[in-house]
Amino acid sequence: MKQRVHILLCLVSLATGASVPAQAGDEPLPLPVQELQQVTGDPQFVMVPMRDGTKLWTAIWKRSSSGRLPTILIRTPYWPDQEVEYRVILASFARAGYAIVVQNERGSFLSQGKFRIMGGAREDGYDAVDWVSKQPWSNGRVGTFGCSSSGDNQVPLAAMHHPAHVAMITASSGSSIGRVGPFQEQGLIFRGGALQIGPWVPWYRSVHGLTYQLKLPTEADPETIEYYGRHYRKKPELAAPTLDYMTMERTLPIQNATRAAGGGPSDYDYLWRMQPNDPRFDQEPLFNADKDDIGVPGLWVAQAYDVGVQPEFAAFEHARAKSQDAAIRANQFAIVSPLTHCSLGRESEHTIVGQRPIGDTRIDYTKAFTDWFDYWVKDGNRPSTHAFKRSALEVYLPGRNRWQSFDTWPTVTQPLRLYLTSDGHANSRLGTGTLVSAAAKHESSDTFTYDPRVPVPTTGGDSCCSPIPGGSVDQSEVEMRNDVLVYTSEPLEGSLTVVGWAEVDVFLSSDAPDTDLTAKVIDVDSSGQAFNVGESIQRVRWREGYQSPVFMKPNQVYKVRVGPFFVSNHFIAGHRIRVDVSSSSFPRYDRNLNTGGNNVDESVPRTATNTVHHGPSFESRVQLPVVTVH
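^ that's the sequence the OP posted. Answer follows.
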């Protein structure tokens, strides 16, 4: 998912370095290349053959007289025109004695073949590790590194168990997950069965642009490869088209969105037409926890407001609990920052995520990453049954404004359950919705009208790449809508820390055969600012699982669980906990047209009258993962 500040996902910018001195009219080398070259000298460019003969464009930075080197491999589909903000980390790897290898995935930039999202993660990744490990300058040990797509391709690769692949640092890698635990998102195409269009519409621009990559001759000589590495911007066929994002988001039916915005064919022409249970997803190279096994030690770097934090964190938990090898299970660790997609390195002394000031979030990634690779990738004796010495989880706590370490995970001491109730008028924050510690003794309900033509606008949240800002944003304005039900606790008598999985159970009836439910957990401060902590969505037809859809009957009450979703927050004494419930968050998710049809091929919506029930028979509630911190 492409955005200017992506960091690791844009690592292909390394590949623009050339050993030919810059000439008049040449664009300057990107700064990360300049810094690497100060350490390693000029890079080497090669076309590395895969098992089917396809050759992938690869750049190598290493000191010429360094002997047999440990290697860090970065595989990416992205163009070399992005800002890389962690160049210090890359240069530090080189100073620490590593060879740095950057390879473009097939069909992207100068690599041969046809581009597919995650298309070469398994076989191509395996072949790349194999090639690196057999080079005369390699010590035979390879660590993989990257964020977003460069992180995504590592997770299926880790399931391939190449003996030379000895460690990974994977960041913002939720797009790699097909199925894990309660998540069946099929590479972030879905969330709770709803289509995630918010992050994918801007990403489509880069996907469509990748279909225009320059094709090198099959037997291109090194000078040709090097020349085009420097001069790619001057090739008009590499220019990505200008697309109207707003048109794409609002076009109905959704299946016509890319064409309506002036785009060409891409993977989304078929991915958006599929349902979460489509068996064709099993043919995609996504990580599937039902059959895949993580085979390498992993350092998982996540962001609490990233679009993929839910499946990514679930995959970390799966690897920690389910990997077949005990040593692999013991060597899975996570770092969760409070920022958005691939924002590692953007922490500051006075960090603001969205609109919420959260203090000094800085962390020494350079040391953490170098220590990790030094242990696993450099030559030496490592006890095969012992864990690397670091905390299982390091997570930042907004509100407490500090990093917190957990030596074991999970470590929830006691889930907190708060129950939704009102006198029937929870509509908007001016209503009477409350959160209480026990289910109300009398049944009541709140009703709202969901019209897909005027959906609730996305306001912050876990996001990526969208023009709409993500993060923690004051919800006060959107909470003035009558189609948003608002339930708020009394001020807390003491502080409360939550880290882990939250979920909201809603007892729902509707006059439509299908609709969506959204839920947000919110921290309301003493001034009334309402900052979102975590949220999710559930398409009601998939409430019983993804084997087959189950539609609603008019005005019958159904239990619908929204979530689980990841939260990390310290509620200060005097603050209040709030839950917002509605039926849309657009354009983060597609609008459910409430018809019970395929949704992607429909253009005529219907209005749904949705009712949330609460009381002794209908215990609508939020469950929060309370932890003890010192």
